[in-house]
Write a structure and sequence with these properties.
By secondary structure, this protein is α/β, with parallel strands linked by helices. The protein is 37% helix and 17% strand. The longest helix is centred in the first third of the chain and has 22 residues.
């Protein structure tokens, strides 16, 4: 949909370029294309090796600044990855979570509609709401959405993201594509609490932190909920399929996930214990057994969960020729190996 990858005149704006997904997308663009990148974020520790790249310009800022939003919208392609997406904050800081995931991206959408930029907005699989254990495939344009009560502030993130999608779709002059990630995992994911972040990260970083520290993995409400895990490298490949789309990707939302990689959280914990033991060259029996905790005890008042999120990926395959391929054992090993190497000094042993 945009000029060839060898076109040096193209600049892509990446909001959140220093984050987990952003750092991988940045590397891929600089490796696979001759494009330039205008990167915006508040933290660049994941991309130190790119800060002096002559094809990049970086700005320490966020979307709360109107002048920054207008600057971003000057570029022909805008990828918005910025979000507060730490589960524990959904309960503790609901107003700020809503502002981050609705107010700011809505302002960016307005600016892109005015400038004519193509806005690729990263939403979330959480917009599918409070799914049940027997929920089937989630389809982008058909699945009904149900959320918990207002008192369950767990849904602050999901409802803000959904409202942003509806707002974007309602802007008549905006060229937009929405991406709904299903549990992207890989190197550089999230943080280790108490080391380079606070609060409770998403499940893979949460479990990885516990393994490195020699602590039991906490199974919230027994770990019976199911999730489908997707390699961040597959996610990057999706972005290039989007860039090269022969059919118009405008006014479309896409699930990006790997339904073949579905596990219960308890199954995930057991797989990660075995992979960690193999990485460290120890017996799995030496790794602490998981512990069951309640969601309210672990995350705080206002917590609820979705019991299953299984993505339909037919649309991305039909329109873009894309399908995630990395199997679960490879995804987990590459993620956990990076985490162990990066945070190994935090080990309790």
């Amino acid at each position: 949909m945009i000029p060839q990858f060898n076109d040096q005149s193209i600049t892509v704006a990446i909001v959140g370029c220093g984050g987990f997904i952003g750092c991988h997308l940045l590397d891929a663009i600089l490796t696979r294309t001759k494009w330039r990148v205008f990167g915006v974020d508040l933290d660049f520790y994941r991309i130190q090796h790119r800060l002096n790249d002559e094809r990049c310009e970086f700005m320490v800022a966020d979307l709360a600044d109107k002048s920054v939003v207008e600057r971003i919208a000057k570029y022909p392609v805008v990828v918005n990855l910025a979000a507060i997406c730490t589960p524990s904050r959904y309960m503790a800081e609901a107003p700020e979570v809503i502002r981050s995931n609705y107010d700011h991206p809505a302002a960016l959408a307005d600016a892109c509609a005015k400038s004519g930029s193509w806005l690729i907005h990263f939403s979330t699989s959480e917009i599918y709401g409070r799914t049940s254990a027997d929920s089937g495939l989630l389809l982008e344009d058909e699945s009904e959405l149900t959320f918990g009560p207002v008192t369950a502030s767990r849904w602050s993130y999901a409802t803000a993201k959904l409202l942003t999608e509806r707002y974007i779709a309602g802007l008549k002059n905006l060229k937009w594509t929405v991406v709904r990630p299903f549990n992207f995992v890989g190197p550089y994911m999230d943080f280790m609490p108490g080391v380079d972040g606070s609060g409770i990260p998403r499940v893979l970083a949460n479990f990885s932190s516990a393994l490195v520290r020699g602590e039991p993995l906490k199974l919230v409400n027994g770990g019976v909920a199911k999730r489908s895990f997707t390699s961040v490298f597959d996610a990057v490949d999706f972005m290039f399929a989007l860039f090269e789309a022969e059919k118009s990707p405008f006014s479309q939302a896409f699930n990006i996930g790997n339904p073949d990689n579905e596990l219960t959280i308890a199954e995930l914990a057991n797989k990660m214990r075995k992979i960690f033991a193999d990485i460290k060259g120890v017996s799995v029996e030496s790794i602490p057994e998981p512990e069951v905790v309640s969601g309210v005890e672990y995350y705080g008042e206002g917590y609820e969960d979705s019991m299953r999120r299984l993505p339909s990926v037919e649309k991305a395959e039909r329109l873009l020729g894309f399908k995630a391929k990395t199997p679960i054992d490879v995804v987990l090993r590459e993620s956990l190996t990076w985490f162990v190497n990066h945070y190994g000094s935090e080990s309790s042993s």
